Amino acid sequence: MTRVLLAEDQGMMRGALALLLGLEEDLEIVAQVGDGDEILPKALEVRPDVALLDIELPGRSGLDAAADLRSRLPGCRVLILTTFGRPGYLRRAMEAGASGFLVKDGPVEDLAAAIRRVLAGERVIDPALAAAALSAGPNPLTQRERDVLAAAVDGATVADIAAKVHLSPATVRNYLSAAIGKTCTRNRMEAVRAARQNGWL
């Protein structure tokens, strides 16, 4: 029996996935969480074979949780299941140690098969997304540029961003300018939007 932890913030989707996967004779849902901060503590408690993680969760993202699991529970395979099939997300998931990456619009039979395949040591990646990731290339933004853009998401001022990321306003302006240039956009909000669409934030 394969023990599965399911992390999904939408209650109805989480319940439906648990119900459908639970119909598989060899799969057992041993834990369900709706918040990214709950993933690692629950995984350490129940010791799943596979963690099925959404990316955009309250608290820690599924990508951050995947890295947590790789370091603290290396025997647990991670399969990312997301609505957002963005090339940058795929690249970040692989860097975080995920064994698979699927989008939510596929049939549940494919998901069950993917769980079995990652448990067997295979990598399972949505083919269309893999092709898009190859053509998109790597994330051009440095970690600091990502931090500054992430702090600018809600339209914060340069002073607000500087306080949040512990940098001087002049340094923040430099990072914002670099990020705008690298994303080929006209201002910081367009840069945030472009970075999000590509899965770089």
From TrEMBL:
Keywords: DNA-binding, Phosphoprotein. The keyword Cell inner membrane does not apply. It comes from the Bacteria. Residues 3-119 form the Response regulatory domain. One of its GO terms (biological process) is phosphorelay signal transduction system. Gene3D superfamilies: 3.40.50.2300. SMART domains: HTH_LUXR (SM00421), REC (SM00448). GO terms for molecular function: DNA binding. Pfam families: GerE (PF00196), Response_reg (PF00072). This is Response regulator transcription factor. The keyword Transmembrane helix does not apply. The modification 4-aspartylphosphate is found at residue 54. Residues 134-199 form the HTH luxR-type domain.
